[in-house]
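Hi support team,

I submitted a single chain yesterday and got back a structure, but I'm not sure I'm reading the token output correctly. Could someone confirm the output below corresponds to the sequence I sent? I've pasted both exactly as they appear in my results page.

Thanks,
R.
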Amino acid sequence: MGLSPAKTNRHSPEFWALLASLLPFFVTITLTLGDPAGIGSEIILRAFSSYRPRWPVRVVGSVAVLVATYERLRGLGQAVADPAALDVVDVPTPEPVQPGQPSVLTGALSVQYLQTALALGCQALVTAPVAKAYWQKAGYAFPGQTEFLAQAVGAHPTAMAFFARSPHTGWVLRTVLATTHIPLAQVPSCITPALLTAKLTLLVASLRQDFGLERLRIALAGLNPHSGEQGHLGREEQDILKPWMQSMRAQFPQVELQGPVPPDTLWVAPAQAWWHRDVPSPWDACIALYHDQGLIPVKALAFDQAVNTTLGLPFVRTSPDHGTAFDIAGQGKANPTSFISAWQWAEWLWERRFGA
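Hi R., thanks for writing in. Yes, this is the structure output for that exact sequence:
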């Protein structure tokens, strides 16, 4: 079902430039359903019941899935929005979708939701979670939505970033991943100066444009225990990271680049800033070298508040910091807090970038 990856809809750079020129005059936040067998429909309908958006919103998904979720959750006595009252762009499903039972069909549908959103010319996109394994089974060879969106709009490079504002202190945790959805064994060979420079450039631009920061403090994680212990526990810090940092200090004189910080201590100071108002922010952002190095501390500190955003796209894109949760789909247990955070961050980032 659905278009082949080679036929994915792609607007020209001129299209996105024209759209950006019109953005100060209008905006629609687009929400995509994610894998329809997951919790996407549940967290979207529950989010609408408790959050009052700042801008018009449309949902791209399958009406039949949304209606079935609405009736199921209403039967459980939960407060959820009625899909009939929402602006829904319907992507029909040829057969019923069962909660918690992903398939080739649900994988293909989740891709079609993204394709439809892009064809509409989305300005700010909030994506519910998908299942990468079922994308693969449906014939879409992308490791995740970040990579799909980047290829679909011809954006290169991009970076996966995570933002979270502490409800305890107001301090903002900002983390960028150097590598994303690749096997751990491939990480060392992928850590190159060119890759790190691309990620740092996007991070610096975001800190300045989105957060209004000028003199930046950025921490780079080491790869090995104790950041290699002067080469005794690994050579990547000595051979790659330190020389690269030295060159970046010359290229970005207003950026205080610290590290490589031993990975086991990098997150101690951010955790203190997250919990305690009297602890000054140690740095403005961190660069983690691989997925779990960045995501374990982010989720441990801010599972409900953390939001994934893609830097480098011609539009705003955010998503909640959790997966499809097939094990609880359809049971009324899904928490919409992270999705609401993603929605709020999408609005805030759009306003910062396009001057609404």
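A quick pointer for reading it: Residues 229 and 237 are 9 Å apart (CA to CA). Let us know if anything else looks off.

Best,
Support desk
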